[in-house]
Design brief:
The complex is a heterodimer of chains A (251) and B (305). Chain A has 2 domains: 180 residues, P-loop containing nucleotide triphosphate hydrolases (Rossmann fold, 3-Layer(aba) Sandwich); 33 residues. In chain A, 37% of the residues lie in helices and 25% in strands. Chain A contains 9 helices and 10 strands. Chain A is globular, with a radius of gyration of 19 Å. By secondary structure, chain B is mainly beta. In chain B, the strands form 2 sheets. Chain B has a 10-stranded mixed sheet. In chain B, strands 3-4-6-8-10-12-14-16-18 form a 9-stranded mixed sheet, with no helix packed on it. In chain B, a hairpin with a 2-residue loop joins β1 and β2. Chain B is globular. The chains are: A alpha/beta (251), B mainly beta (305).
């Protein structure tokens, strides 16, 4: 359903131009769940934002159901059925949860607002009429962000680290929600995540490093690789901090 | 007596589509045209100067007073209105000025509104300003509001001015006595080359008096806005000012805070911010299918609600 061909992206920073993405190639099939993972700063979010149209690629091509969307703007891609849940969601002075869900889902959403909030573990009564302002905790805005994606009728839903700020008790429900969205609405899902629980959902795992796709693999291989890295870790052998892998460990 | 333009202006400034229920006084082009009083609310024309006295009997609950002013031609109008809100009453007062200036002459309405909110009374005061007309004549509004809130009294002020007025100077002075409360919500949008200045001075005189001012404004095109918010605490009291402005295009906004305490138990806070529409808000709404223009309008509408 989605083909990403030789995508490259150059962004202008304070120190001149930086090649953020290069030769990115992968394909997403209908109705599958993909998890994108890899080291921090490897380009996962930028890759997802380029699919959504928040960044316009400098080279390459993106096709959605065979239609070239490379030069389509953000709102046009949104209307074509792509959705993106931000890692750090925006807050709005004066816009209520109910209103944002209705913007997201149109008329359909006004009927089902309670369900979307329930699916992200929030009580509709407590939240619908609250403004999405600074009074919300990080976890609350994050859940509302995910609810705005559930409210939409999407071909492709992208979630950028949905687990960040979500407590352990709600993780179970969140993974069930992703499965339901995938099965009930036939939505293809791409989740950027480092969480084992979310990796468990993956039909395929897209490994991203240094601005490109390094490998397309499956969860067994990834989890096996992590435990191998853990056991090979040099820190473990002579670690003075009780044998735990610590930051800075040179794997 | 009232034509289609008048009715539209009334709808804008007072949400009035028909003659209101309860007490009202409609002033058009410098003269009173319609008036109604009730058993509890009396309206009397001032003898010494243009304007009215609105007298609300003690204990009056759930009643409203509408006192819209409309100008449908170029002229200068000046009124002095006095409101006596009796002890333990609970009322809604809706004032507003609508100007339809089609000609080339200046249309100006200056009003001085003085309120006495007596012991234990509760008043909600809504003031809306609206201007229209394609003529070259400028539309000017200079309202002055003076409020005295006695012991245990509450005054809630909602002041709204969206586009339409070319030049406005708004002065508001409030004096709060023991255990009284003030809540002010101000909404302002200027565009083209309009100018707006709002000066609010709040004197917290009595013990446990509290005041909260939330001012939100949007300045577009080449318009200019100046806010002077001054809060003075003379007793054990609490005051909070929140002043937020969205600036666009070539507009200019100044926000001048002043808080002064004359008592060590006074707690006063002033927060002020001026900035563009946050880009992450635009991006989020566009990622839900809105164009940039639609996203911008949605954000501004919410902000000024």
């Amino acid at each position: 359903m989605l083909e990403v061909k030789n995508i490259g992206l150059i962004l202008k920073g304070d120190e001149g131009e930086i090649q953020v993405l290069k030769d990115v190639n992968f394909t997403l099939d209908d109705k599958k769940i993909y998890v994108m993972t890899g080291p921090n700063g490897g380009g996962k979010s930028v890759m997802a934002k380029t699919i959504m149209g928040i960044h316009q690629p400098t080279s390459g091509q993106i096709l959605l159901d065979g239609v070239d969307i490379t030069h389509k703007e953000l709102y046009e891609r949104a209307r074509m059925g792509i959705g993106y849940a931000f890692q750090q969601p925006a807050r709005f002075k004066g816009i209520k949860v109910r209103e944002l869900l209705e913007i997201a889902g149109g008329k359909k959403a006004s009927v089902d607002t309670c369900d979307y909030l329930y699916d992200v573990g929030l009580c509709a009564q407590d939240y619908l009429d609250r403004e999405i302002n600074a009074s919300f905790s990080g976890g609350e805005v994050k859940r509302i962000e995910i609810a705005t994606i559930l409210a939409r009728d999407l071909k492709l839903a992208i979630f950028d680290e949905p687990e960040a700020g979500i407590d352990l008790w709600s993780m179970q429900r969140l993974t069930e929600t992703f499965e339901k969205m995938n099965k009930k609405y036939d939505t293809t899902i791409l989740i950027i995540s480092h969480q084992e629980r979310i990796l468990d959902l993956a039909d395929e795992v897209i490994m991203v490093a240094e601005g490109t796709v390094s490998e397309i693999t499956n969860r067994e291989k990834v989890l096996g690789e992590i435990s191998r890295l853990d056991s090979d870790c040099m820190c473990r052998r002579s670690c003075s901090r009780g044998g735990k892998a610590i930051a800075g460990c040179d794997r | 007596m009232l034509d289609a333009i008048d009715k539209k202006l009334l709808a804008e400034v007072a949400d009035l589509h028909e003659m209101p229920h309860g007490a009202f006084n409609i002033r058009k082009n410098g003269r009173g045209v319609e008036r109604n009083t009730t058993a509890n609310i009396d309206i009397i024309t001032k003898k010494d100067k243009p304007g009215i006295d609105v007298i609300i009997k003690p204990g009056t609950k759930g009643e409203s007073v509408h006192i819209p002013v409309i100008l449908s031609e170029g002229m200068e109008d000046m009124v002095y209105n006095t409101f006596e809100v009796g002890e333990d009453s609970d009322v809604l007062i809706v004032a507003g000025c609508g100007i339809h200036n089609q000609g080339g002459k200046k249309a100006q309405h200056d009003g001085i509104h003085e309120f006495f909110v007596r012991k234990g009374a509760r008043m909600k005061y809504v003031e809306k300003h609206y201007g229209e007309g394609d003529g070259s004549g400028v539309r000017i509004l200079n309202p002055k509001t003076i409020i005295e809130i006695e012991e245990n009294g509450t005054a809630e002020l909602e002041m709204v001015q969206i586009k339409g007025i070319d030049s406005t100077l708004r002065d508001t002075e409030v004096r709060l006595h023991k255990n009284s409360r003030l809540i002010v919500t101000e909404r302002l949008l200027t565009y083209l080359s309009q100018t707006a200045e709002s000066n609010i001075t709040v004197n917290l005189l009595g013990e446990d008096a509290s005041a909260q001012i939330i001012s939100r404004s949007v300045a577009q095109n080449e318009s200019k806005q100046v806010f002077h918010l001054n809060m003075r605490g003379y007793a054990k009291c609490r005051g909070h000012i929140q002043c937020d402005s969205i600036i666009m295009d070539q507009a200019q906004v100044s926000s001048v805070p002043e808080i002064s305490a004359f008592n060590s138990d006074a707690q006063l806070i002033h927060e002020a911010a001026i900035g563009k529409i946050a880009s992450e808000q635009l991006t989020k709404l566009m990622s839900l299918g809105m164009t940039e223009k639609e996203a911008e309008e949605t954000i501004l509408q919410g902000f000024l609600k």
